[in-house]
Specification:
This protein is α/β, with parallel strands linked by helices. Strand 6 and strand 7 form a beta hairpin. Helix 3 packs parallel to helix 5, helix 7 packs parallel to helix 9 and helix 11 packs antiparallel against helix 12. The protein starts with about 20 loop residues before the first helix and ends in a 15-residue tail after the last strand.
Length: about 350
């Protein structure tokens, strides 16, 4: 809904005072390390000018702010080549993002806002498409296997409340999705199918002429996502950091999310010319980029106050916690580049 929908409303959603916390809100060190990786991508692409970063679903704007701040301070040649587009559908979030980005870059001359990916020319982008917890925010089809048949969950209003009923799938694309995977959810299991995420990935591949796609998100390969022990799927709601599996309470006032099918996301990318460079966890990605080494160096050189040192140490723990943000998957795809060796994937089996 343009006004009452969760992402379009003006209530606080992200951060410690909202419903959920994403990595850019933890500490600027996250954006700094992402910027370091993107700067290497620019070098591997031959240092083109301009080098366009397209961030989809930029949330609070903290990631854009921290990437621009790091590039301006630490990599002036990269900064000179940089163009930064933020793709945002919510007017309220756009205004918030402008204010946040201006904290580090008051002129905003490097940043611009787009309402959708269709505003970009087909095959017109040389650079990097970036997203953090973007694909898991799309609406999903919730399905159920019963008596070896695939059904979809629908919502009806009865006796002054929302209720779920099941019926035939609403589109043949759902059954085609499982045919492509060569697997179905197990008998009696609910699961989610995120068709819109796959279309977005195809659009990204179509818009990218040469460069990278860098995706941070919660998810699994298909064999884990649709494992027979996952009886209730992965649909979750968050309200003031408290999880719930009831999407029909607090309508429009709680975050709804489900885990990404990375097998299908990679396949959708291949359809539009994107090759997978590697996939790893956020914990290992940030470690490979030096999140721990930077903390030690700052301490040894005396460049950090005691307060900032402990703030960074807490951030390192939170961003790399394998039971929390550290388990986020990092998928890197490329187009028009031959076997790029990226710092964030060092030590990984590509």
């Amino acid at each position: 809904h343009p006004h009452h929908g969760y992402y379009c409303s003006t209530r606080e959603k992200m951060g410690r005072l909202g419903d959920y916390l994403t990595s850019p809100e933890v500490h600027a060190v996250f954006g700094s390390l992402v910027a370091k990786q993107i700067a290497q991508m620019w070098q591997l692409a031959g240092e083109p000018r301009p080098f366009t970063v397209v961030e989809m679903g930029p949330g609070s704007g903290a990631l854009a702010r921290d990437i621009l701040a790091w590039a301006k301070r630490r990599a002036p040649e990269f900064f000179a080549a940089l163009e930064y587009h933020l793709v945002e559908v919510s007017d309220a979030l756009t205004e918030r993002q402008r204010r946040v980005v201006m904290e580090a870059y008051p002129s905003l001359s490097k940043a611009s806002w787009l309402p959708s990916l269709t505003a970009l020319p087909q095959g017109g982008v040389t650079g990097c498409f970036l997203s953090n917890e973007f694909f898991d925010s799309f609406p999903v089809h919730r399905v159920l296997v019963r008596d070896s048949r695939l059904y979809e969950a629908y919502v009806e209003w009865r006796d002054d409340s929302f209720r779920e009923v099941v019926g035939p799938p609403s589109t043949p694309q759902i059954e085609e999705h499982f045919r492509r995977l060569g697997r179905m959810p197990a008998e009696g299991c609910f699961a989610e199918v995120n068709l819109e995420a796959l279309e977005q990935m195809k659009d990204i591949g179509g818009a990218l002429a040469r460069g990278f796609v860098l995706t941070f998100d919660y998810g699994y390969p298909a064999e884990e996502l649709y494992a027979p022990w996952r009886k209730d799927g992965t649909l979750l709601c968050f309200y003031r950091h408290n999880p719930s599996n009831d999407p029909y309470s607090r309508v429009g006032r709680q975050d709804m999310t489900s885990h990404v099918d990375f097998t299908s996301l990679e396949a959708a990318g291949r359809e539009s010319g994107l090759g997978t460079v590697g996939i790893t966890s956020q914990s290992r990605f940030l470690a490979a980029l030096g999140i721990g080494a930077g903390l030690r160096a700052g301490s040894e050189e005396g460049g950090l106050s005691l307060e900032e040192y402990y703030a960074r140490r807490r951030a390192v723990t939170e961003l790399t916690d394998p039971a929390g943000l550290g388990r986020i998957k990092v998928l890197i795809q490329a187009k028009g580049l031959e076997r790029p060796q990226l710092w964030g994937l060092e030590g990984e089996d590509r």
